[in-house]
Amino acid sequence: MYEMHFGMSMSGAVLNTINTRLDARTVTVLLRHSGSKLIFVDPTSLPLVHDALQLLPPRHPAARVIPVEDPYEKEFPPADPSTLT
Hints:
Elements: H1 2-11, H2 24-34, E1 38-41, H3 46-54, E2 64-67
Parallel strand pairs: 1-2
Helix pairs in contact: 2-3
């Protein structure tokens, strides 16, 4: 995902990051207003994106969903929950 911040602007596209802590209804509003044609999403957030797309109006053009796994994130072991505050 880090690389997309540079790649999108270099290609002339616009990167619109969406907070995955939002609910599906709010994500739907953001997708509708942004006119997104592609959605790059971490596989763990696919259910949220799916739910948001289902809430779009019937005539709204469907965005293409592209799951992206970041291998960098897999290099680190899970954090000990007792150390998180």
